[in-house]
Design goal:
By secondary structure, this protein is an all-alpha fold. It is 68% helix and 3% strand. The protein is built from 7 helices and 2 strands, in the order αααββαααα. It has helices spanning 3-48, 56-61, 65-108, 134-170, 184-196, 216-224, 226-229; strands spanning 114-116, 123-125. Strands 1-2 form a two-stranded antiparallel sheet. α1 (3-48) packs antiparallel against α3, α1 runs parallel beside α4 and α3 (65-108) runs antiparallel to α4. Residues 226-233 have low confidence and may be disordered.
Amino acid sequence: MNPATTQDLARKQLRLFYDALCSWYSCQRDYIEDVEALLRMLLQLNNSQQPIVWHPSIILLFPDLSSKFHSASLRISEQRLDRIKATREKMAKCVASMFDAANWLGEYATLPAKKISPEDGSIQEICPFVNGSAERYAEATISACNLCKDVADMRVDQIEKLQNILDSLAGDTDIVLPPNTFENDTQVMNIMMWRELPGILDRKLLGPSSVSTLTLAGFKDILQNNERINQVALY
């Protein structure tokens, strides 16, 4: 295959990787927003089951208000959880697309890195990317794929926990929830943990032998900003 054509394909695959990564970030944002909304709803739903919440005069005027609120809140919560599950599936598809592009780049990186110029017989480097070797880009993309997959896998466990809480409030399960499940401090900690994923999103992409401190967010910026590509090297 013509080297120029191969380089164009490499740039195209990197673009496909970037598009999938952007979609993953978008899903991540939607996931967090829906989880925060659902946690607030579940907390409110649990509180509504406490007699002290409903003033006696309200119960006297609207005897079925509590049960109607409970049913409506359950329905809305189930719809929200369905959206969260769908978003997680989209994240998994984004990761699959990222792996497809990263694997292609990995194979490309094994090709000869030099060619002989037909004009003067000189040796020329073959590198389709503005800054950094094909090997480094291949390494960074695979590492980013693994990180994004780890996050998507963690979301499965989170969704299971949310489902258990919802089922418990609906009375559809024998699962006994921890006594502090609905404490405000616990909810805040859940939101912080599920949003930030400590240690995951800040993980260094390139291997221990590299002096680079490149993270997922940094790599995304490099792919996005051509001007920054000229300034930041994938060591």
